[in-house]
Design goal:
extended; Helix Hairpins; 8 helices; HSP40/DNAj peptide-binding domain
Length: 366
Amino acid sequence: MEYKDYYKTLGVDRKASPADIKKAYRKLARELHPDRNPGDKTAERRFKDVNEANEVLSDPQKRGQYDMLGANWDQYGTGAAGGTYSDPFGPGGPFAGFGQGAGGGNVRYEFHGNTGDFSDFFNMFFGGGGGAAAGSPGAGPTAGATQTRGGAGSGTSGSRRGGSLDDLLSRLRFEGAGAGPAQPRGGAKAKVRRGDDAEVEVDLTLEEAYQGSSRLIQVGEKRLEVKLPAGVETGSKIRLAGKAGSGNDAGDLYLVAKVKPNAVFTRNGADLTREIPVTLQEALLGAEVEVETLGGRVLLTIPAGTQQGQTFRLAGKGMPRLKGDGHGDLFVKMRVVLPPRLEGAARKAAEDFLRVVVQANPRTRS
């Protein structure tokens, strides 16, 4: 098993903050995206590695588990006596005892989906043990496959299938004797709705929701490329008729969008709100400033005398409307940034200015 240094993959320090990791990931994802590098296998491989690294390092729980290996990563697949173990939660594993009820006993963990598209290291560390399925050397867990630990006869079943990068760890469910079933961890997961229908939660960035996006979804033995239209928001459902199985009785596949929060824009339906900083001079005398929107940069004219917190509407610069034509609006809120502490001539000039410009006490009630 080849050790994956996810910090090196993203080009960040091991003590990097979540914001540093997010910034590094976004930069690399833009540079390596297949749409920008058609036919470039090296870029495609690096793109997958970057996504795999972000999948772990952007999640505090997964990052903590990853960091737990430290310098002993190479002992993960080897027991104390030199033998091998395939269960990371079993005796000798790095997470021995994790998920067991107070009374001990057998614990079953189940993956809803697969880990086939991930690296061996990712599968070994996060993929439920990395044990090979019968007749499939090196295969990872698949949809419906279970492993039981704490008793004889442990093993895996199923065949290797591709996985969704955004929902791997979330599909692991623990059931401990004496403790009751634990809740599935958050993230994308497929679940049966009615009959043979299936529902899959799809994570998107706000930028992807603005432009529209596509995903590879594994459904049984089939891998589908599905498209999410521009304008989807959290809770939006896209129905793909007859795609939840094969044959005439195949059910429908429902994609449920989950749009991640954005550091710059706040969304309200099709409308967006953002803040921009302006100088004291720009606020007092007026100016034209560039505003970054999801559709590109635009010029905003700020009138003289603009106040702190004043908001301007840019019509049609918000999100695409999922139902109907056009876009929502972008509301731009002003944040006036004052100059630093004034000294000497600058302070005297400010005092002279304020003697000329008489301003009423804003704290006095009218």
